Amino acid sequence: MTITMRATAMAVLLSFSSSFIVAPAHAAIVSTEEAVAMHQQDRSELKQFFDREDIAKALQAHGVSPEVAKARVDSMTEEEAQKLAAHIENAPAGAGIVGVLFTVFIILLVTDILGLTKVFPFTRSVR
Question: What is the DSSP string of 13-51?
């Protein structure tokens, strides 16, 4: 075998062997009371979310009362309640509107440059 083939074989062997190294797992015993408390905390956070005045107004604008929303939270499975609570927790406030405004600005800017509209006075048409 040539030196190049040996080096390639060693590189392949090392890459395969390093992919089988497993990190140790850490686990702990969780009592039933702790598990139930975690799930109840998710449900109580969701119910508090529906108690907010702005959320209640938004629900009523869509024809849903906050009491009905809370009843639906009670009928959710543990996994659904956990996912919804995580989604609400991680959702950025007002991030959607910034993206929409930026997109509209870019579209209007491009149409101004192409000469299809005349919205911005600082652009010059290519036509």
Answer: HHHHHHHT--PPP------HHHHHHHHHHHHHHHHHHHH
